[in-house]
Amino acid sequence: DQHYDVTAAQDKWRKVWDDLNPFQAADDGSKERRYALTMFPYPSGDLHMGHAEVMALHDVIARYWWQRGYDVLNPIGWDSFGLPAENAAIKRGENPAVFTYANIETQAESFRRYGISFDWSRRLNTSDPEYYRWTQWLFLKFRERGLAYRKFSPVNWCPNDQTVLANEQVVAGMCERCGAEVTKRELSQWYFKVTDYAQRLLDDMEPLEATWPSKVLAMQRNWIGRSEGAHIDFAVDAPHYHGDPIRVFTTRPDTVFGATFMVVAADAKMAAELCAPERRAALEDYLVEVRKATDIDRLATDRPKSGVDLGVTAVNPVTGARIPVWASDYVLADYGTGAIMAVPGQDQRDWEFAKKFGLPVIRTVQPPEGFEEAGGEAFTGSGPAINSANDEISLDGLPVDEAKARIISWLEQKGVGKGFVNFRLRDWLLSRQRYWGAPIPIVHCGACGEVAVPEDQLPVELPDLSGADLKPKGVSPLAAAADWVNVDCPQCGGPAKRDSDTMDTFVDSSWYFFRYCSPHYTEGPFDPKAVRNWMPAAQYVGGVEHAILHLLYSRFFTKVLHDMGLVDFVEPFSRLLNQGEVINEGRGMSKSLGNGVNLGEMIDEFGVDAIRLTMVFAGPPEADIDWADMSPGGSVKFLQRAWRLSGDVGSEPGTPAEGGDVGLRQATHRTVSDAEQLVETQRFNVLVARTMELVNTTRKAIDSGCGPADPAVREAAEAVAILLSLVAPYTAEEMWARLGHEPTVARAGWPTVDPALLVQDSVTAVVQVQGKLRARLEVSPDITAADLEALVMADAHVQRALDGKDVRKVIVRAPKLVNIVTG
Ligand code: ANZ
Ligand code: ZN
Known about the structure:
Residues 425-627 form the Aminoacyl-tRNA synthetase class Ia domain. By secondary structure, the chain is an alpha+beta fold.
């Protein structure tokens, strides 16, 4: 009877759960709703240890909410378009759809086995036409609002994947996906105008301060990169130049008196336009070098400065001085205006450049005493302005902030400058030259130009290119599908061509959580009423690798949907949890290191519950888990100990717990009460530790205390089953059945805590009558003097000692001492 067959339990309960379908959201308004969201997976293979961890953590929350009586939305789907699937398919010579949908079935089966409390009725795949129909619809709506546009410009190009990449997908100059060095190409591409939302993306983070990891908020802020400063125009007077003045963006307009030269990005068009004819050859030579460097290299402060004098001068608008214009790679073409005023006295990179090329330095902020003697270079600190006056204005003596304000208003008066807020954030390049994505629903017509595919013709379905060569060639494989690409123009009926690019998969994943609320809705991307019911999602769990891209894009989509009047909130995720990484021997698991751990094998060896429990117990959810330090065998033993309790108690319904052992009852109620706090504060590992303690306490009560028949033992065992239902669903279910209950323990409801049993560890109160010790009482440490006196006076020992005498005085020092003086 006392052998726990884990495999048999898994086989048995999976079937029962499939029949009971206990986690389908009722969605009828009978209960308060809670949306538990987890980042949906790429179907690039079977589930791995990382999935096992994030899902185990996520499921604690979802299952807890069910037990607390909420109606829970816990959906699952697949981010099923994209390069990983496409590349894998190319390697195998298969259609990406075949590979993708096979993997989805494998992962779905693994999730079921792993016992995650998903609502299986809401499954979605972003590669299903019924889904991407609405991705296309949203694209068109964004375009109607001026938020999707096409432009010709230099873009990041991955020579390996043969496709463009968003800035966000270039990590330290390399393709985020394949690691190849990214180059630049001039191409016509589609963009989303995220920059229109830069300020709101910043402002709306404030309320998330308490519920999102501060690291993620910092990364988002940094990515948006707001800088306050000014635009300043420097006139150029050269016979070969017919363009506008050179406009710079500066965060330090107060230093403009010290601008002794200018630098334009060597690879910006402006550099070529400004360049004097006799310097052209030098610039060309220099550009060959520049194109080899990444943006990261170019911005590094410790990089030796290089550049070319363009042989032209500009006029400093406050000093009237003619200052030389240089081209260099330390100025980036696509940040600010692509040109700077160089202030070597106050900016270290400008200082180094000035020293290298013998350019003058004028300090405009007073450095502290001894600064120059100490070999001072650029002084970037604050101090009063110096050397900053002309006939009309003086900043001298002003602190930096005041000097900034003063000079901006002067520049504005003169029409040569303006206060300006600059953002690092770029528009989102969304078109890809690949097959496995949502086609961009645009037709290009010689007569009408860009024409939107009419809504009633959506989705623009991907053609079946089975057998076709999908290898990347720089243009989308769709361009070669003549039957698909050649269409009649929806506007004039003339010959036209479909746009052959597909959308970045980050477009698909920017709105899937809306779709979950009404996954089969056919009138729009989602039913606004359903979204109002469930969203914003109360909890989002996922990896920190999505801290910038996915979360920023999802937030952007939400704001646009808000502006379209489709949703009434501006942030999609009320609370965010980033789980740590599962590593092995101190390093990320990888094929090349040969330290991968196979989840399926782990489950076969230890069982689902032991793996889940190990993941949750390993440490705080945000911390990395080094699998080499884990012992799932210990989890197996603990689960057996817990399970044995249910056998000792048996299935006969017990008598009410009120009459049971008080010590054990207190332990049970305290554990359940603390568990509520621990789940709310996401200290799931402590929740497991406390459950383990309760199992031990119960075991002691059975073996050497009140014995198994005491109703307090049944109460404790039932509480253990319910607590375990958040972490180890099979064991919990098995215990619940052995305790004589119907399935499923997952919906049993949270135990009701009796506040009277939440007494803290008791203290001993000593009672003296006429100076003699007459009684000891166990009381709560926070008992009031009045309560203590009442307790003492009712005590039998005390009454006997008083023996009917008059009480003259009772001195109470709660909680430890009571002195009774008789007459
Ligand atoms: C003059 C100056 C004086 C500056 C000074 C700084 C300190 P953030 O905060 O990152 O926005 N800059 C502007 N555009 C640039 C570009 N395309 N490539 C490289 N550097 C660029 O930095 C803004 C400052 O970075 C600007 O303010 C400009 O240098 C430089 F004591 O102007 B500053
Ligand atoms: Zn036309």
